[in-house]
Amino acid sequence: MAQRRSQNQEICTTIKFSWWSHFAILFLITSVLKAHLADASDTIYPGQSLARNQTLTSKDGIFQMGFFSPGKSHHYNLGIWYKMIAEFTVVWEEDSTYLGLEPGSMALELSKDGLLAIKKRI
Q1: Tell me, what's the pLDDT at 113?
Q2: What CA–CA distance (Å, rounded) separates 121 from 118?
Q3: What is the model's pTM?
Q4: What positions does the domain Bulb-type lectin occupy (predicted)?
């Protein structure tokens, strides 16, 4: 009887370890997916901003929006371009050079009122 009890205890311990390892693996996969999805965001929410080095990618992965420097210019424009085409092809651009902002200080911001604006980051 004593031998039978120790076998049951070993089985329970193995099951607990197995459950814990499954939970840990699930947590790891979820964390990796969150990190991946954070990089490929297709939405900006009120109160959020998009910095010069960030982009929004359309849900289907065809278009990308963000700041870019046309040609050899030192100025940055806000634009939308094809993401999957080898040659950089702009679909739409807003010339933001008239704002007089340094490239690193620009951000696209969606206000809580729903207004989209290019602002100076502080």
Answers
A1: 87
A2: 9
A3: 0.60
A4: 41-122
